[in-house]
């Protein structure tokens, strides 16, 4: 049996809890993020750690949370590394276009001359533009990829090497009509070609062409041992961050970049700026935004960039790996962008649909 004092104390506690929650919500719904639907984050799996960055009105704001007991609890993770999955393809696209410009190679150029002669037979119809727009006819992953996946299920891309890729390409017949077909293999090949042309690793090209100019100091292709403790996931028994993937040189272009929310916001800020700090790089990004393929009334494809078409044009790319989900999107007309990084586990697309819903509703013009 409760006495009056106990009940009064209980209701005082409830009142203080409500005030605390209101203060928390007030602190994360800043003026320039009022239209962000925070409740939608609650649909992510319990225990998910989330980093959110927004750019609007010329300002960056970052927020860190962990989803526990059905609530978003603040967590400082602005400097933590996340595997960004297929957002890597945006960087692969930038690195490739910068490389082609330097070497005076048109995107309409067939790729055969940059591959061993044994592969010329299959690639004489494939162009850089095909690879950049996922219109090469190449599958998401080739049939012989599954041997690599079976060899190390926890690292399915690790053992798919150049010789495996070339063996598949030798037998591949390019289709006649250009149709959109999302291909990790195609982007892996694109990164490999970029590396061949410059005679340098894709990691070093990205660092020189993108990460250093934009001061994305924490961002890298793959992670070194001294970065392991910066990854948001804990270390496993082999002292490697849990639920992360390693990639071979032939597949890195499809999804091997790690970054934090601070660096990704620097990228957004540069994309939505006037580009004066690096006019060449900015021109490349503007080129990537031009629609190349109409996928549907709602979707288009630029050069290594996806386009969401509804009431406004939203450029975006998402990323899905076993231990991470991510999405970057922006509306150039409104000079407004958002990045969400999280460590939701599994290969379901459900989490990325949640991230899309949050980002598109935030960026959509009323």
Mean pLDDT: 89
Largest sheet, in brief, is: 9 strands, antiparallel
Question: Approximately how much helix is present in the residues?
Answer: 25-40%
Low-confidence stretches: 1-34
Distance between the ends: 54 Å
CATH class of the domain at 82-106 and 199-363: Alpha Beta
Rg over CA atoms: 22 Å
CATH-defined topology of the domain at 82-106 and 199-363: Beta-lactamase
The helix/strand class is: alpha+beta
Strand order of the largest sheet: 3-2-1-12-11-10-9-8-7
Q: Report the principal-axis shape.
A: globular
CATH superfamily of the domain at 82-106 and 199-363, by name, is DD-peptidase/beta-lactamase superfamily
Count the E strands. Answer: 12
Write the layout of secondary structure elements.
Elements: H1 4-28, E1 49-56, E2 59-68, E3 71-74, E4 82-83, H2 88-102, H3 120-123, H4 128-132, H5 145-151, H6 162-171, H7 184-198, H8 202-211, E5 220-221, H9 252-255, E6 257-259, H10 261-271, H11 279-288, E7 293-294, E8 299-301, E9 306-309, E10 313-321, E11 324-331, E12 336-342, H12 350-363
Antiparallel strand pairs: 1-2, 1-12, 2-3, 4-6, 5-6, 7-8, 8-9, 9-10, 10-11, 11-12
Helix pairs in contact: 2-7, 2-8, 2-11
Labels describing this entry:
Beta-lactamase, 366 residues, 12 helices, disordered N terminus, nine-stranded antiparallel sheet, 36% helix, single chain, alpha+beta, three-stranded antiparallel sheet
Describe the structure.
- The protein is α+β, with helices and mostly antiparallel strands and 366 residues long.
- Among the domains are: 1-34; 82-106 and 199-363, DD-peptidase/beta-lactamase superfamily (Beta-lactamase), CATH 3.40.710.
- It is built from twelve helices and twelve strands.
- The strands form two sheets. It has a nine-stranded antiparallel sheet with strand order 3-2-1-12-11-10-9-8-7, with helices on both faces. Strands 4-6-5 form a three-stranded antiparallel sheet.
- Strand 8 and strand 9 (306-309) form a beta hairpin.
- Helix 2 packs across helix 8 (202-211).
- 42% of the residues are buried.
- Mean pLDDT is 89; it is low at 1-34.
